[in-house]
Model the fold of this input.
Amino acid sequence: MIEQLIPILAGTLAAATPLIFAGLGELVVERTGVMNLGVEGMMLVGAIAGFAAAAETGYGVAAGLPAGALAGAATAMIFAFFALSLAANQAACGLALTIFGIGLSAFIGQNYISYSLPGLKPLPIPLLADIPLLGPVLFAQDAVVYLSLAAYAAVAWTLTKTRLGLLLKAIGESPESAHAIGYPVILIRFGAVAFGGAMAGIGGAYLSTVYTPLWVQNMSAGRGWIAVALVVFATWKPTRLLFGAYLFGFVTILQFHAQGLGIMLPVQFLAALPYLATIVVLVVISRDRRVLQNNLPASLGKPFLP
Amino acid sequence: MHSPVPRLELLGITKRYPGIVACAEVSLSVLPGEIHAVLGENGAGKSTLMKIIYGAVKADAGTILLNGHEVSIANPAQARRHGIGMVFQHFSLFETLSVVENISLVLDEPFDLPALAVRVKAVSERYGLPLDPKRMVHSLSVGERQRVEIVRCLLQDPKLLILDEPTSVLTPQAVQTLFETLRQLASEGVSILYISHKLHEIQSLCDGATIIRHGKVTGTAIPRQETAASLARMMIGRELPVCQAPAYEGEKRTVLTVEALSLISEEPFGTNLEDISFSVNAGEILGIAGISGNGQAELMAALSGETTVEKHSIHFDGEAIGHLNAGQRRNRGLVFVPEERLGRGAVPPFSLSHNALLTAHRKGMKNWGMVRYSKAREFADQCVARFDVRCGGSGDDARSLSGGNLQKFIVGREIMLKPKLMIVAQPTWGVDVGASAVLRQALVDLSRNGVAIVLISEELEELFEISDRIAVLAEGRLSAAQPRGATSAESVGLKMSGLFDETSTSQSSEVSHASA
Amino acid sequence: MHLLEPRARPSRLMRWTAPLIAIVATLLAGSLLFWSLGKPVLESFEVFFIQPMTSSYGWSELLIKACPLILIAEGLAIGFKARIYNIGAEGQLIIGALAGGGVAIYMDGSDSAWVMPAMILAGAIGGGLWGALPALLRTRFNAQETLTTLMLSYVASFILSFMVSGPWRDPEGMNFPQSIMFGDNALFAILLEGSRVNTSIYLTGAAVLAFWLFNARSFMHFQLEVGGHAPAASRYAGFSSHQTVWFSLVVSGITAGLAGVGEIAGPVGQLNLNISPGYGFAAIIVAYLGRLHALGIVLAGLLMALIYLGGEAAQVSLQMPFAITGIFQGMLLFFLLGSDVFIDNRLRRSA
Done:
């Protein structure tokens, strides 16, 4: 049984990685009071940009992740211009970005359909990787998985321990007050949205250059939306987001091991599990209105014009 | 003796907004150590002027001189570097952060919260503004929040402190404490710009005053040498209107009884209501005093039906109605005028006739689920005419009306529903003096026609002007109502700070005797 | 950064010209796109937007694509007015199609005149139920409908995939994931000889009329708008927010479900994995582009259908991927939202 568990748990970490990147990015964005529902679109653009860069340069993931980050941030700027500079409806702008991103990535991806990339070899950490059970699960992952944990630590530290973190939270609660005491609210929100885009782009690039590693149209398959749901589930806290992502990683990976575990369900049912789990998780966290309200950035989704 | 250089001098400051001139050629000057009032009624342009000085709004024309030198103030950070501090009317604090975190956000210095906390404590004690730096702002009372704002300014060692309507959120006792702090600061050489429309406060505190009406300076004065009437004339251009309240001679029956009403607030940082009991009779105005944030919003929602409560905790006209929603209660003759006009009492982008439909649809404006828009228009036209709502007509959008005129429309609409009980919150908040007088008179007239009225207000003057009995809501609990003649502003003020336990009832009544 | 300042009063002119500005801006951005791809700009536009309308076949295809878009958008507009964001119409369409298709499959071979009405009813119920689910989650558990409707549309697509590759797979379909082709009495009758235009167009027509009347006169519509513009005013007036949520999600579910039946009993003629080329998502744009107005949506639906047709034409004549329709749709929505801002605001005069 343990023998079976190791690949499942190890796979969970890898499957959660795109969600961690995209979720952390969206978490920072929402902390400043902006709701960018375009994560799915940014992930896809990041995925194809990363794939193209990896394929064209020959540097693989080393070119793919930065390219994904840049492309994600660039598409996020379209959202930022409309939703922040023009203060247009944020929910609808996010949808527009998703529709646009799906189209753009499929458009560019047309040229890369039959390509495949070498992917990324695991990078076992000496000594730690030899610990029974924990070693192969935690310390024999690819480098990007470790990077996702570093990103988590950096975001968590910035949000709770620095003045910048305080400022982001303050702007998320009341952009009016932040403006009144002299902070450039729109500019700071632009920065947050760019960060969110870059992180979604990295998440997408991980999917296309490491996880699969192929380009398939619409390959994020709703992970961007799940990342948005995770931020709600996490009540805007990085640590809860990390655990939420692992939960989803586990549910996602389960379908590939179901047969081995003796679960005889139609593949479609297993494939639908992550989406059903998202709904369940949303219901659980939203059921008590107070839990959400006490943590919700008060200005979330509301247009702000100074 | 040569005349000292003014700390601040404004010359010809002008600011236009689409459709309105907020400030027209405003000039004023403040000396070092002077407490200078900017006096004007709601909407006169005082707040805009202060935001210009603080760099939050940019003037279209005019010059600002600090200590005799012309300066340009592009943003609040620059204003702070020039030694200007501002205490906002609607505080610019963040509820989800602690006191010291809030303060750290305006200081240009390395991020070290523990060290800052020590300084916050020191400054707050020195100026008689006790504060716990670690408390979260949402757990502070409004008065305490104001202290945070003031301490935040003081830590930047200001040369000029601006306070925008600082006493509207304070009990009479707290006002006196604030004045002592301000005098102490002035004696240390700090100039203070004190914005208010309250005449007696300005007379007791300020050394000089600049009076503004419709964005223009209408005079300067030394307040102590003026009478309230002469200041009022400069402020509104005529005498302060007085409300006529004859005795009620109709049938005295109880319309509303609230018994042991408790409510857990739905808002993240709201106040819970605890065991509230009172009753209101026909022909009577019951005033409920207290500072916002002490359960006012929750009581309002529970009475109106926006929040439903235990069925038997509210009886209206002999019927238990606690479980009914606002629409069902309105059907029974319980109407309600909320504090927020735009977005609650009226839908901003809707015309007045559509806004009439909001609550008056029950007056024959529907037929098989379809709206009879002509009826709604008729109703709105009548309301506009009867209550002197100044606007282009019932086709105007609600948001295009001034605060006073929209309030007249909302109050008028609810009166035209022929209620038995009206609940009204802050009816004259942000409304100019003329419209305020009309509104207060309308409420008195309504009550003398046999309607019971519950008036929730922060303004003691207003409560003492038109209420028959006054109760105080503090920290979610309601004091026993007392006839207006048997209480005083001081006694009500004490209760506003929550001092009305059984043990302290005798104490507070002693105070009221003492002051009588 | 600070580009705007509020107008003294909203511009009525902008309210109706904003969609036109958005269309022009989309065309300009599209030119840039064609140009950067090294395609001749004018010729590309000709292929994309003019060519489809030069033949009667093109016009009939335009109608076929516009009908479901309009039908779904009419329902979605109801919710959008109340700020209830059903973005999972695609899923409701699929479940509606499954329900209607199920009737067709089980009644295959029957010559009853009730097959078609039963399919329509089943589609409405299916779509309505798929819309009711997020309504339940929202009113009972406070779960945001934006995410739940979307997640349910993924779930719906897996159900469809399961049904057409399992229980309802055509035994003679060479193992393709598709059902049997429906019989004639399970298909809408062709209206125009030689085209695919069929009687489901009456369904859309009736819906447009019904929604137009509803929007113009009903008190329920007034309540929805109050809820959208000022939720506090809605509570103040005593309107039930639960009723609003249920109504808008179920109604938009029903229209999407009907559109699903229109597809499978129309141009598609069976259940398969490609019953909708993203109509449920495109209809969101149609609703906004049509100003959430029953008649505006008709025009917007025709334009969106043209973008679909243009995408197909571009695929054939310009060797461009069909995904270009998505790019155009996204740009159109962005520019529309951007122009809408100028209804209530104007450009700041001085910096």
User: Anything to note?
Assistant: The mean pLDDT of chain C is 92. Chain C touches chain A through 49 residues (CB under 8 Å).
